[in-house]
Amino acid sequence: MIKTSAITKTVTTSQGELSILQPISFEVKAGESIAIVGASGSGKSTLLSLLAGLDEVSSGSIYLDGQGLHDMNEEQRAQLRGEKVGFIFQSFMLVQSLTALENIMLPAEIAGLDNASQLGQEILEKVGLGHRGDHYPNQLSGGEQQRVAIARAFITKPKILFADEPTGNLDAANSGKIEQLLFDLNRDSHTTLVLVTHDNELAKHCQRQLLMNAGELSEVTASDKKTDPIDVLAPTESQAG
Amino acid sequence: MTKQTFNLAWRLFKHEAKRGELTIILLAIILSVASVLSLSLFSERLQSALTDKSAEFIAADRVLNSRKPVDEAWIEKAKEFGLNTANQVYTRSMAFSGDNMMLVDLRAAAQGYPLKGTVKIAEQPFAPGQATDTLPQSGNAWIESRLFQNLGLSLGQVIEVGDKTFTVSKVLSEVPDAGFSVFGGDPKVLINEQDLAATNIIGPGSRASFSYFFTGSDANLDDYYDWLMPQLDKELQSWVSVSDDDSAIGRSIAKAEQYFLLASLLAIVLAAVSIAVAAQRYSQRHYDPVAIMKTLGASKKMVQQVYLLQITFITVLGIAIGTVLGFLIQQIVVWALAGSVDVSLDVWFWRPLIIAVFTGAICAVLFSLYPLLKLFSVSPLRVLRRDLGASLSSRFIQFLASGGAIFSLMWAYSGNLGLSAILFGSGILLVMSLLLVTFGLIWLGRRLGSGKMGAWQLAWARIRRRAMDNAIQLISFAVTIMLLLIVLVMRNDMIAQWQNQLPQGTPNYFLVNITQQQLPDLQAHFAQENVDIEHFYPVVRGRFVAINDEKVSTAVSKEDEEPVERQGREGLGREANLTWSDELQHENVITAGKWFDSNEPLESGLYGVSVEARIADRLDIQLGDKLTFNVGSEIINTQVSSLREVNWQTMQPNFFFVIQPQAMQGYLPTYLSSFYLDKSRKSDITDLMKPFASVTLFDVDARIEQLRGIVQQVSLAVEFILVLVLAAGALVLIAQVQASMDERQQELAILRTLGAKGRLIRASVLFEFIIIGLVAGLMAAFANEVSLFFLQSQVFEMEAMLHWEYWFIAPVVGAIVVGALGMVGCWRLLRLNTSHLLRQMV
């Protein structure tokens, strides 16, 4: 479903070129769930932005469901996102001036679906917020807002779902519920899930875990899983230092 | 565009409007439409009413003056164009009564005259006149009071004009088209046009003027003129409208019109500034929704459509509310003025509505264009990296787009490139200076704002940190204050000038033809009767015959008429009143050369003459030229020693030529003078003048009253316009503070979270706004002086002067008002609790 080959990202700063991602190659199969873990600043959000077509690679190639993202312009990438990709963000990213139901309907409307309202209402029921459809985001709790965001992500039945720290802004109780909801929906709709987090518990729910460290990506093996990936990171960081 | 796109745009608009998110931008559009509509509708109505009023001075909306009768078909054509017509023949002729005779201004009016204004008649010479809508019947004549005096007539007696005898049936007190020349007029005699032929005074070579009056709608009048113009003989015929009126009233009204135009222009600029501020804020608030939509797969086109639709909804709503509000505001002004202004203000005009809607739409589109372009350029990556703003960022494009838009609006609306250029130029100057000052302030702030972190330091830190934002905010405050200052100061200067022109006690009677022998008796008599009469001007009538020994055309035409043919150098075209004096008259200013400073002749051996600047310009007279006058059989040679600017609007005796007294010794002058007699003593005038039957008396009381009345009404209208613009300006300031409060919200939330006391935050915001208000006020005072200098000297033809008081008032008031507005905005934010503030930031 996702195939990357030697992708890199460099940015120009006042001190010259800065390499954020070293050449990265990996593959994610359809229906698979992977977690990209790593410390803050390791480059995992940058990788997510490239995989989701929100940003352009500096070199290398990315194929999403067989389509080459690296050859596309912003408009084409937007179209691909609209057709095949769903998103969940740490800060929910709901449009403040639309109600919960309207936020959920947004991707369906962008895709030009006629039954957006009906679909929205159905999925709103599924995430347990059927009665809160006409509430604005700032009238909902953090957990509720994230449930709306999850509903929004699934309304167009995307093939791939990208989630950036989906529980990062939530307390433990809400985190659990959101995790449950996310994985249940993912399983039911056979979506490929790419999750960025530094929450090990969340990462463990995924079939595979990839560790991002200073712009380099490595697969976390079964033996690594016995310990926290963050612990695995520590010696590398000290070595780098 | 898909149905979904429209629905989404509509839904966003509906919710945002409901939640008050659109208040600022909506308010800005409403304000622009309302202020432009109310100002221009009111000024259009007032102008129309005043034009109507001043049309009375030419007795019609338009007059065709001709040296010979015009083709009857022209008049028929005018009727086809839906115009009302009337006509009158003017000529000068001798009127006889027994052995007495006098040159009179004979007017033969046809039915319908006057189309505008009224003729007033009385039963007693010098008695107040009553309006009449009739004309003298055939065989009757109505004559002016002084003709009774000069010919020793009383009502019911007869006068002869040409071959016809007329019974004097009424005293003619006033005709609307009398003109403002105090000395030029011979006494008027009004007869019926039917009797003119019988007088036999109109024949080949006679100097008659045929006037044809027209009234009707402006459009019809213009259409008729377009039809007529190609057929006019420029040598013989002229087309006159009220705007050609060069009298004091004509000029006052022209100035008032320019003022209204200025005020409306400034209102447009104010509106534009507020829309620009609001659009900027609107755009910034939508960075997130745009990033989200793009992330969810919306194409750039779709995002553009959604937001262009939103702006369209906002604009349409703003224009609709603004139109209603603007109409209500001006209606309130009209009601408030109803008792004071003696003109009807209920005519509806479409032009202001079109202008207002156009302004609202253009402002909304042009000023939101750049912020929208910025908005469209927001990257979807912002969903992950919140610090990412818009990728399009060019203040230069923004300034160019907004500046170009403001200038084109001003130019399109005023049709006056000069006025627009002056205002725009001073605006640019202000912006440049402000940028310099702001960066100067930042440098200064680094010195002043160092030390322990208190309110003062926080204020400076904020100013420093947001240098560019603050520069823009400063500029918008300063521009607003400057525009308000211009409107205020212009109004003060203009009204002061009008009032100076006709202070209480302005002479309302003129005496002409006082002989040398009569002078001491007259002075004694007036003193005895308690009437102040100060200055007596010696006058001899002379003909101006040559410049530098080159003969000028001396064909003497009658007063107010153009010479028929001009050969060689142009002359005055009539006899001039020559006077002499050591002293420069009040309200006369030497513009070249110098006033007589000795009793000696000039180097050339000739005595000096001081020439009025406008006539010198018209006759191409230069300083040092030799001017020759012919008085009776004597020749007087003089040399131009100075040029004078004369304020003709003062209703004081004024002269084209003032000769050095020594040159005029030996000439027997008559004297002229003016005096003021209170209205309550009007009936004393006959007794006062009885011993001096040969002295001619001009009563200009009615004219002065008319003039003063109009000046008062125009002044009042100007006051109301000022209030409207001030209100608009105040609202703009509030909008600006509100918008900037938004930017402060985040910082306030953080300060609060960190435990800063409300007092510290309030004080720091207060200091910040006081500093901004102070600087903005100071810069506005500076820019105001520059703009006023050009406006007054180039557009309003007034004497430009410095206004030192505003160098103090503007910064102080700026600091107080902006500081207070800042406090109110801050207080609103501080009422919200911290978690609410933080949540709003997300």
TrEMBL record, chain B:
The chain crosses the membrane at residues 21-42, 259-279, 306-329, 349-373, 394-413, 419-444, 471-490, 716-739, 760-783, 806-830. Residues 24-199 form the MacB-like periplasmic core domain. It is found in: Cell membrane. One of its GO terms (cellular component) is plasma membrane. It holds the Pfam family MacB_PCD. Residues 262-380, 720-833 form the ABC3 transporter permease C-terminal domain. It is a multi-pass membrane protein. Keywords: Cell membrane, Membrane, Transmembrane, Transmembrane helix. InterPro entries: ABC3_permease_C, MacB_PCD, Membrane_comp_ABC_pdt. Its main location: membrane. This is ABC-type transport system, permease component. The lineage of its organism: Bacteria, Pseudomonadati, Pseudomonadota, Gammaproteobacteria, Alteromonadales.
